[in-house]
């Protein structure tokens, strides 16, 4: 039984190193957005290259995160966490010295592999290490401190971009990792899952990642309209179909398809796809809009976006408590509608926009919508399946959220009619940004309709999330990704 007390020196070190490790991966999924214009200018990169700079990381992270949790269960959570931290640091170093866009994209993909190893392990270590009486508080502190990191990340990222340069957004991870890894080795007890099997569903992980990669490539390169793009799209869909067939037939798959027999679970994941696709597209394009069109510096753009994260940090726990009392249907309906209204208000953010009159009101409405829906969404996912499968359900939902953001970053510029050089032209980008925000708002409305039509109150004895404070706006926090994760 875990017996580390939170007040002990060891407990404080465990909390520190897990927060530091998970914050590295979280920050790199957010702060890079504010660096994109400078990266594009310095590396002479077109819009497709900027899309890949974001998506290469999200692709390997989303495709391998369930497998990363399984590796921790099987070989030891501390060991895999430390490997993930060091891997992430090495990939960050490669990002920081990238001589061209192609090198940077490849290094970002390697970063995502490191993120997939360390992200599920950070929370699993806390759950496996602390005494039962301290576990909820430890998880709350982990989530809260991680949220603070998410809040200051774009600010720090903007400061680095405007100061020493965008490369330091990545290079900063190296000393952080060199601090984190030794502390983990010295103070974190090793833990694993004695019920883990000996073989992993590597085929499922490869097929899932391959399907995402092929579809993403087809969407980003679709402007060319070549036969290669068409064939890639067809192969991507085929890989997705084969992935589902393989998962259905394996005895112990990475993603057992029978979990979708729960109508509530399926419905909530559809809502997740809608809202996190809109979020992913928004935060990718909003950072560009504020710099390219409005004329903000990287620091100004990062600071401008802080209200959404601050609202989530301050009020997400209360939103979750309210949803516990009134049920999730209303929050999951009203939340996406508020987010849609916030994105429509972003249509006022143009060349002469005032922060107080135009930008801030849109972000406040968007933030209130996020506060309303994110915590109830996580809780409803956990409540829609048997308690024994709650960790698996949360892991699948987290992967779905990341995949939705990945597809949105790939597809939204295409749908909005952005050309390869659009981010170099304020007028062209502004026009396309307006169309993109309208599309995002429409997707959110679809999510609200799905929630209203399908979501019901989970049973009273269902599992409740230990993470009550949400600070990440790009994906929900992992909730015990220690599912028997899918070894085959």
TrEMBL record:
Segments forming domain Major facilitator superfamily (MFS) profile: 14-459
The membrane topology noted for this protein in its Swiss-Prot or TrEMBL record is: Multi-pass membrane protein
The source's domain of life comes to Bacteria
Q: Where is it mostly found?
A: membrane
Q: Enumerate the subcellular locations listed in this protein's record, separating them with semicolons.
A: Cell membrane
- Which Pfam family, giving just one, matches this sequence? MFS_1
Enumerate the UniProt keywords alphabetically.
Antibiotic resistance, Cell membrane, Membrane, Transmembrane, Transmembrane helix, Transport
Q: Where are the transmembrane segments?
A: 12-36, 48-68, 80-99, 105-126, 138-160, 166-188, 200-220, 226-246, 267-288, 294-317, 329-347, 359-383, 395-416, 436-455
Q: What is the name listed in the Swiss-Prot or TrEMBL entry for this protein?
A: MFS transporter
Species in which this protein is naturally found: Streptomyces plumbiresistens
